[in-house]
């Protein structure tokens, strides 16, 4: 035996201890749940050179970075349904098969855990010996918010992140799961290029074959629960808001604070949303504002909309996403500075102009003002070097399109009142799509783009 002593701390061992005990012996060493490769280096020193032929060292960890010097890495796959059911039953019933009247509930619990052994063990152990009514109550509760013990267990990897890494993980969990990697990088800034590999190594996120950021449902729920616990009672004191009920409460009662960084609201879930003109004045750190409408969009009109009496007051200059379907005002918010803006989406808006003059827009990639029927003009976009996508289809009062970024990939002017396509469009060498269909006022199309 390597450790004959009843209690030994790693600090008391060291590589010389291992070498003295195991020199030239054939051994199998197993290190479980290692979270820092330095622990292995301290114990093994230069490696397994001192061990006998045929020796093996096995290590388990949640962090792929621990295996930087490993000869071979085996990634444990997600358990299939039958394996999951067996593990759950062993913890919930202390046998392979469930109690008959709990069979269907057992399956629903297993579906919820989605192949994560730790969740299956925690939930199964919690339900052991409980009544059917308690099982049903537990299922209702975890469908609203994850079980506390599951959150605490999954949270171990999250707790090891630094402040910026935690913030990016929460942004992804709350808002960007399923989005393309390029979009997420644009939205969250340059630092995310360093953070994404860290989150992947800790199995907090993954990247799919089609380059989308993916996150396991339970890991995502853990992230949402972390945000909820920032202020269990008052949503306006949380950093991120995505639940329609919570956003509605905050806007109705004007309880937003400087803690709020991100808001997402599906307006289709409300007949009307009433805002005060100072609704965002108390949110100076707001980075993402998304008022979208998942309901019918017929000829530029949504079935529900935001009502506001005196126009939109000031909004944060930190905004990177301004997405407001059916935007109710003729003008952009007072003193709005779009320098940090990455996406501007205002489908079916009432706006007739954006900002005055030539603005420096180094981050802007997307403009979508589709069916903004009051829009009469677009500002000069020559200082938006990264602009790639512009959709102005259905802007029936728009007669001119200005100079724009040379990186433009898509320009949709379908159903506009444009009279002439500027010759500068011919210089857009990266343009892959130019839609001028149903432009009935179009009288001149320069030969250089034909």
UniProtKB/TrEMBL annotation:
Its keywords, alphabetically, are: Leucine-rich repeat, Repeat
Kindly give the SUPFAM superfamilies that the UniProt entry links to this protein.
L domain-like (SSF52058), P-loop containing nucleoside triphosphate hydrolases (SSF52540), Winged helix' DNA-binding domain (SSF46785)
The yes or no answer to whether the keyword Metal-binding is present is no
Q: Which InterPro entries match?
A: Apaf_helical, Disease_R_plants, Leu-rich_rpt_3, LRR_dom_sf, NB-ARC, P-loop_NTPase, WH_DNA-bd_sf, WHD_ROQ1-like
Entry GO MF terms: ADP binding
Q: Does the keyword Magnesium apply?
A: no
Xref: Pfam families: LRR_3, NB-ARC, WHD_ROQ1
Q: What is this protein called?
A: Disease resistance protein (TIR-NBS-LRR class)
Q: Which residues form the Disease resistance protein Roq1-like winged-helix domain?
A: 163-231
Name a single GO biological process. defense response
Limits of the NB-ARC domain: 20-96
């Amino acid at each position: 035996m390597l450790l004959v002593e009843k209690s030994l701390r790693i600090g008391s061992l060291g590589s010389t201890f291992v070498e003295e005990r195991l020199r030239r012996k054939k051994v199998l060493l197993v290190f479980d749940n290692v979270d820092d490769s330095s622990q292995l280096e301290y114990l093994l020193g230069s490696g397994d050179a001192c061990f006998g032929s045929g020796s093996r060292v096995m290590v388990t960890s949640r962090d792929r970075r621990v295996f930087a010097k490993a000869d071979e890495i085996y990634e444990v796959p997600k358990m299939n349904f039958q394996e999951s059911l067996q593990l759950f039953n062993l913890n919930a019933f202390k046998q392979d098969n469930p109690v008959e009247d709990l069979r269907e509930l057992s399956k629903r619990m297993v579906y919820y855990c989605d192949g994560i052994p730790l969740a299956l063990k925690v939930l199964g152990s919690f339900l052991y010996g409980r009544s059917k009514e308690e099982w049903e109550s537990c299922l209702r509760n975890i469908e609203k918010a994850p079980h506390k013990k599951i959150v605490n267990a999954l949270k171990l990897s999250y707790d090891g992140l630094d402040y910026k890494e935690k913030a990016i993980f929460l942004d992804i969990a709350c808002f960007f799961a399923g989005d393309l990697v390029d979009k997420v990088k644009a939205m969250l800034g340059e630092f995310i290029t360093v953070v994404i590999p860290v989150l992947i190594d800790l199995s907090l996120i993954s990247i799919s074959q089609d380059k989308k950021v993916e996150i396991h449902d339970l890991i995502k729920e853990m992230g949402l629960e972390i945000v909820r616990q920032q202020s269990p009672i008052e949503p306006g004191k949380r950093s991120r808001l995505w639940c329609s009920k919570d956003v509605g409460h905050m806007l109705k009662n004007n309880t937003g604070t400087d803690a709020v960084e991100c808001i997402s609201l599906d307006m289709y879930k409300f007949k009307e949303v009433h805002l005060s003109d100072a609704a965002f004045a108390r949110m100076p750190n707001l980075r993402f504002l998304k008022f979208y409408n998942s309901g019918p969009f017929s000829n530029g009109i949504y079935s529900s909309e935001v009502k506001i009496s005196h126009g939109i007051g000031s909004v944060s200059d930190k905004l990177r996403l301004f997405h407001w379907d059916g935007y109710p005002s003729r003008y952009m918010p007072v003193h709005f500075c779009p320098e940090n803006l990455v996406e501007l989406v205002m489908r079916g808006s009432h706006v007739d102009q954006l900002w005055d003059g030539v603005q420096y827009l180094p981050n802007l990639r997307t403009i979508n003002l589709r069916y903004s029927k009051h829009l009469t003009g677009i500002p000069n976009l020559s200082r938006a070097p990264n602009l790639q996508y512009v959709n102005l289809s259905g802007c029936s009062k728009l007669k001119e399109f200005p100079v724009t970024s040379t990186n433009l990939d898509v320009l949709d002017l379908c159903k506009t009142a444009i009279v002439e396509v500027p010759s500068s469009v011919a210089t857009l060498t990266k343009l892959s799509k130019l839609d001028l269909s149903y432009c009935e006022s179009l009288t001149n199309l320069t030969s250089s783009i034909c």
